[in-house]
Design a protein that fits this description.
The chain is an alpha/beta fold and 210 residues long. The protein has ten helices and five strands; from the N terminus they run E-H-E-H-H-H-H-E-H-E-H-H-E-H-H.
Amino acid sequence: METYAITIARGFGTGGREIASKLADELGIHSYENRILTLAAQYSGMDEFEFREVDEKLRGSYVRSQIQRMQKRFLPQGHMEEFVSDDRLFQIEAKIIRELVKAESCIIVGKCSDYLLKDYDNVLSVYIEAPRAYCLKQVMDRMDVTEEEAARLITKTDKYRADYYKYYTNGNYWTNPVNYDLTLNSGRLGQEKCVEMIKSALKIKLGVEV
């Protein structure tokens, strides 16, 4: 197997992004999340002629070099707005994700990546959830907000993610366990054990030595 990918879907406050980052460090690969959206948004704002020119360049090594130049976001980013579809933006994100997986072994966080890559033989899909009390504490500590603010952020962000997933997967439900190879409770396991279990699943499913 030349390359492999791990997709991670997660509830807000579960530590999914941190787990992805720790896992990437241990595996020696990159973890991608908001940089995919940033790059796609740049391309989606181009007129048709410009985009056709860029589209010709949207191949593995080019995408990888573009996206790795972008700054990572380390603080959690919640969604307080309602979900509004943008089909063109999603199509570009999907193309970037598929090209990334061809170009290198990597972790993709969110973006319906489990659905986009469901027919790929070199992908392990993971969903991470946790009890509400755990998520509240994580958000309060990481974002320095009150419990009430944390609760609103979790509710609104998870609704946004559910609506996003449902729209772009033709009615599928984001938290349905049959969408994923592995579902983990980070509140019970802790982040380190989640990382170890994903590494074990990677070896079992894809034969990747870790």
